[in-house]
Amino acid sequence: MEYFNNPQLQLAYEFVQFTGTNVFLTGKAGTGKTTFLHNLKQSTFKRMIVVAPTGVAAINAGGVTIHSFFQLPFGPQLPNNQNRDNESGGEKSRLQRFSRDKINIIKSLDLLVIDEVSMVRADLLDGIDGVLRRFKNRNKPFGGVQLLMIGDLQQLAPIAKDDEWSILKQYYETVFFFSSKALQQTNYISVELKHIFRQSDKIFIELLNKVRNNELDEESIALLNQQHIPNFNPDDSEGYITLTTHNNQAKSINTRKLKEIDAEPKTFTAVISGDFPEHSYPTDYELTLKEGAQVMFVKNDPTHEKLFFNGKIGTLKYIDDDVLYVECPEDNLPIPVTPLEWDNTKYSINNDTKEIEETVTGSFTQYPLKLAWAITIHKSQGLTFEKAIIDAQAAFTHGQVYVALSRCKALEGMVLSTPIRTHAIINDNTVTGFNKNIEKNPPTPEQLKKAQLDYQRGLLLELFNYKYAQNLLDQTLRFAKANANSFQPNLPQLLNSISSKLKSDIFDVSTKFTQQIIRLIEEKSMVENNAQLQERIKKASSYFGLKLQDEILQPLYNINIETDSKELKGKINESIDKIINELYVKLSCINSCKDGFITTKFIETRAKASIEGPKRKKRDKVPTNPDITAVKHPDFYNRLKDWRNKLAQEQNVPVYRIVTQKSLIEIASELPYHKLQLKKVNGMGKKKVEEFGQEIIRMVTAFRAEKGIPIPEGNVFEDEEPKPKKKNKKGDSHLASFQLFEKGNSISQIAKERGLAESTVAGHLTRFVKSGELPVDKLISKEKLNRIETYFINAGSLHLSQAMETLGNDFSYNELRWVLMHLQNIGKVNKE
Fold first, then answer.
1. What count of Cα atoms within 13 Å lies in the side-chain half-sphere of residue 418?
2. Whole-angstrom distance, CA of residue 337 vs CA of residue 134
3. Is there a contact between 345 and 41 (Cβ–Cβ < 8 Å)?
4. What are the residue ranges of helices labelled H in 548-598?
5. Spatial strand order in the sheet of 340-349
6. Low-confidence ranges of the chain (pLDDT < 70)
7. How far apart are CA 648 and CA 656, in angstroms?
8. Rounded to an integer, what distance in angstroms lies between the CA atom of residue 51 and that of residue 111?
9. Strands 48-52 and 241-244: what pairing?
10. Which of 496, 506, 517 is nearest to 468 (CA)?
11. Measured between alpha carbons, how far is 696 from 314 in angstroms, rounded to an integer?
12. Can you give the C-alpha Rg of the chain in angstroms?
């Protein structure tokens, strides 16, 4: 498929479109890199977004900044902080701030375009890798997303301050993007564009190449310095712009020149709508101009007339109400200029089509002009000038002189305010060596064909690889077994049955089938043109589609988790959802191959399925009561549970505060007919037996009668537990405090009567909370109790010091300890 006339552009296009290979598209200034990007955005079938290192670059490329999209901090990104399973609190918090829409974009992303990659540091690229791995595929560099990196390393370099580089140099050989740890794990290719569109003068082009490669000889320097004109001060009508190395130089020139004009200044204020950050403003928010001022257009003419372009120089001839008229030397008539709008773009997912959309989040409306007697070299990157005065004697960084010189269309339109000295041309030897390696090793058509075959092969092998799904299901099964007492009894059996079917009917079969794929692809023909392989894919799609839907996904949908623990329920539901999401995408892609494998159709289906997710309504409609056949008397279990749930609703407390599920299962299995037996049930403390024991025993008695299960003679309501002999140890301080509290005394009253500190009395009472003899709600308000319970149930730690730090000074140490003892007594949290 021919899309570009230029062979290098066509090769780059085919690598991006029809392979998964990462591509670095480079070339001298003016070789059409930006044009390539705009054409690609119009033609690619891949889901792509565009990012750039700076706000202005992002606006020019029609994308967003790297830091804003990936939510990366501006400091160094240390490689050993990436891709960790257990992030620190700050890192985890940052990642949790990703919106669902952005996560969906990343999950469905095929292609990430990074424009002006020469200004991207290696650690920033690794930061991108970390985010992509987290939300897409943690086992592949950049999460398996293809990169298109566009830029010229001989132009402006990334910035690393001395203190930043002192940290980064421990991990990276250079600051440039190609030193990225993640990128070095990939076999990326580099395509260099050689045809220059901006300049046509062969002598000037050769001079620029020598500057770019730091190969200036005496003859070339002499030729270049012929453009040096001391004290050159052209008339504004000639349309020259001065390029300076520092911002204060440019600002000083523009301010001075504007003051010299004997005319009334007029200030035009931009109109900002929505979100448009200041660092991305394409021109001044308050643009002060005078008739006679030299100005530069900072936007292309959006109309069909194309009267101006970004970088065109002219003179503001006159101001007529809301229309500014700019006269340019090459035009017959002044150009009427009205305010234009720049958009700040945000990527989002269309809820109907599931496509990635560019959504405008804000706009900046202003006249597309700025004062143009001078501009910094940094801000001139990407612009083209007919006439320019270059002041590069204070050049301070790599590529600065080359960027300045290459802005000019011809040698004749360039004036040097100071001679070019070799010391001003700063080149990084690492970059020079890297570029020479690119020149020596251009990608070949054979490499392209192999990359296309590998891409299609990789998509197929990924489709029929169920290792990750099997691992997820086995992990979930182990978790269910480890917490079997907290879930419905049959949950491990259900998961084990599904896992066995996944292994025998899908995993094992797919492993054999992938061997067939590998063998059939060895013919070296593309998958789409391989008739024998396509026939096998069709049959495999029918087999795997049915098995996945009926034997794996449907049973997973029908699992309804029963547990009193919100934390355990959340964890296992999250695990099951991961399995379902993984297999749903597989199923969607398999169904797309029922008539054969087509790359474009496959990629579109995979992306949409990653966003849509499975239809969860099927799971929502399952019966609320689980299959509890493993309980000895399941019908009595349901009766107990209904009683417990109704009571909890009436008292407005969590169900476990009445009786835990674990206790219900044990009661339904053992049918305790006496309070002594009921006390032996896990989680049934003295208080619970006193409060609910009589009702539970009545229900057990009635159920036994219904089923003909005999009850030994005796009063089942009488507590016949032999009462322990009281230990009247003289000086039993704990017991004395407890007895006074039982009589209705407050902690402060007890402390005063016994001559103790209140904290000491509070500590005495902890023993009786732990044993269940003292209900915790007699010591602490309901609001505090609920807050502390919620913390301990959901927190990963039972350390009181950490609880104090999290909950703050509203809670005392003893209050936290009382609630923890209570939760451990009822079996709601584990004992340390």
1. 12
2. 48
3. no
4. 554-557, 566-592
5. 271-274, 356-366, 340-349
6. 1-5, 29, 55-61, 80-96, 196-200, 347-357, 382, 394-399, 422-428, 523-524, 615-630, 712-731, 796-797, 801-802, 805-806, 808-809, 831-832
7. 8
8. 11
9. unpaired
10. 506
11. 93
12. 37
Q: Across the strands, what pairs with 374?
A: 242
358: helix, strand or coil: strand
* H/E segment holding residue 817: helix 813-825
Residue 636: Cβ-neighbour burial (10 angstroms; 0-12, 13-18, 19+): buried
Other C-beta atoms closer than 10 Å to the C-beta of 235 total 7
- Return all residues near 47 (Cβ < 8 A) that are at least 6 apart: 108, 109, 110, 111, 355, 356, 603, 607
Contact between residue 558 and residue 622 where contact means Cβ atoms under 8 Å apart: yes
CB 325 within 8 A of CB 318: yes
What CA–CA distance (Å, rounded) separates 550 from 587? 11
**Phi then psi for 565, rounded to 5 degrees?**
-90, 115
Q: Within a 10 A sphere around the Cβ of 379, how many other Cβ atoms?
A: 14
Could you list the beta-strand ranges (E) of 74-188.
111-114, 146-150
Residue 831's pLDDT is 64
The C-alpha angle 830, 831, 832, rounded to 5 degrees, equals 115
Helices (H), 226-368: 247-260
Whole-Å CA distances, 229 to 226, 391, 416, 417, 507: 8, 11, 6, 6, 76
Q: Which residues of 698-724 are buried (b: 16+ CB within 10 A; e: fewer)?
A: ebbbebbeeeeeeeeeeebeeeeeeee
Residue 155 CB neighbour total at 10 angstroms: 22
Cα Dmax for the chain? 120
Structure tokens at 536: 């096998």
Can you tell me the distance from the alpha carbon of 63 to that of 56, in angstroms, rounded to the nearest whole number? Answer: 10
Is residue 149 helix, strand or coil? strand
Evaluated on CA atoms 735, 741, 747, 748, the torsion sign reads: negative
CA dihedral 705, 707, 708, 710 (to 10 degrees): -70
Q: What's the token pair of residue 233?
A: 């001060």
The alpha carbon dihedral of 517, 518, 521, 523 has a sign of negative
The first and second tokens of residue 86, run together, are 């257990």
Q: Phi/psi of residue 350, each to 5°?
A: -75, 120
The amino acid at residue 807 is L
Q: Closest Cα to residue 537, out of 583, 601, 481?
A: 601
Transcribe 379-430 into DSSP letters: HHTT--BSSEEEE-TT--STTHHHHHHTTBS-GGGEEESS---GGG----HH
Q: Token pair of 504, please?
A: 């025998």
- Paired tokens of 550: 């009926």
- Which whole-number Å values give the CA distances from 612 to 305, 581, 602, 615, in the listed order? 43, 9, 15, 8
Entry field: residues in the chain: 832
| Residue 519 exposure: Cα atoms within 13 Å on the Cβ side | 8
Closest by Cα among 545, 552, 570 to 501: 552
Specify the residue for token string 């300076």.
244
Query: Quick one: DSSP state of residue 322?
Result: T
Which residues lie closer than 8 Å to 413 by C-beta, 6 or more apart? 385, 386, 387, 388
What pLDDT score does 395 carry? 58
Residues 114 and 49: beta-carbon distance below 8 Å: no
Q: Are 114 and 52 in contact (CB under 8 A)?
A: yes
The whole-angstrom distance between residue 295's C-alpha and the CA centroid of its chain comes to 41
- Could you give the CA distance from residue 541 to residue 593 in angstroms, rounded to a whole number? 6
| CB of 387 closer than 8 Å to CB of 238 | yes
Encoding tokens for residue 74?
A: 């501006």
Q: How many helices (H) and strands (E) does the chain have?
A: 33, 20
Please state the three-class secondary structure of 761-804 as a single string. Answer: HHHHHHHHHHHCCCCHHHCCCHHHHHHHHHHHHHCCCCCHHHHH
Q: Which amino acid is at 823?
A: L
Query: So what's the pLDDT on residue 474?
Result: 92
Residue 246, Cβ density class (10 Å: 0-12 exposed, 13-18 middle, ≥19 buried): middle
